[in-house]
Amino acid sequence: MKTLVLNLNNSKTIQEVSFLFKQGWETYRRNALPYSLYTLLSSGLIWALSSIPFASSLVFPLYMAGLYTAIKSSEEKEILTLTDFLNIEKGKLGAILKVGALTSLLTMIGFIAFIIPGAYAFCSYAFTTPLVLDANNKNLTAWEILEKSRRVFHSNWNLILVMMSSYFLISILALLPLGLGLFISTPFLACVNYSLYKKLK
Questions:
Q1: In 3D, which of 34, 45, 21, 19 has the Cα closest to residue 69?
Q2: Does residue 180 sit in helix, strand or coil?
Q3: Beta strands in the chain (DSSP E)
Q4: How many CA atoms within 13 Å lie on the side-chain side of 21?
Q5: Among the listed ranges 64-68, 94-98, 114-118, 173-177, which one has the minimum average pLDDT value?
Q6: What is the per-residue pLDDT across 114-134, written as a single tens digit (0 to 9) for each?
Q7: Phi, psi (5° rounding) for residue 39?
Q8: Residue 57: exposed, middle, or buried by beta-carbon count in 10 A (0-12, 13-18, 19+)?
Q9: Considering the entire predicted model, what is its pTM?
Q10: How far is CA 9 from CA 14, 15, 16, 18, in A?
Q11: Cβ(189)–Cβ(167) under 8 Å?
């Protein structure tokens, strides 16, 4: 047992995961209130639109795009405001919606067909939104963005799998206090995922 613990402590993957979570927490901590307030307001909008078919599934990709846009802005400015979440490049809104819809559809089909394909899709398309935001070539199609994200996963599947499993466990724990923990865990995990994206891109 002692040997197993020592091996885990010395594992390169575990060390990388620990570093990424610390980096993500520091990013979130510096602007915790704007991140969580933006998440709260977006959740209210998604809930208000839940009675309209597919409306909430269109808002969620925009929420994530706003979150990643603000995280990128935090690299250059110390204090974020809510306007930083709205500075998404207008020319990329269509691509964000298309990629978000395809990602949700493929992941949902994967989980319905069998859990493993759904988990594969969830891990493979974890970087689609930041890839759209970073894309210099505006002619990239949604399928090309998905394929780029999938290739990143295939090249680093062991680290990404551990990270995604950690995201899942943290999200489950965040649900326990009446779901209120999600207002912290969701933006925090986005900060962690952005650190992972920067490391792998």
A1: 34
A2: coil
A3: none
A4: 15
A5: 114-118
A6: 777 788 888 999 999 999 999
A7: -65, -40
A8: middle
A9: 0.88
A10: 7, 7, 11, 10
A11: yes
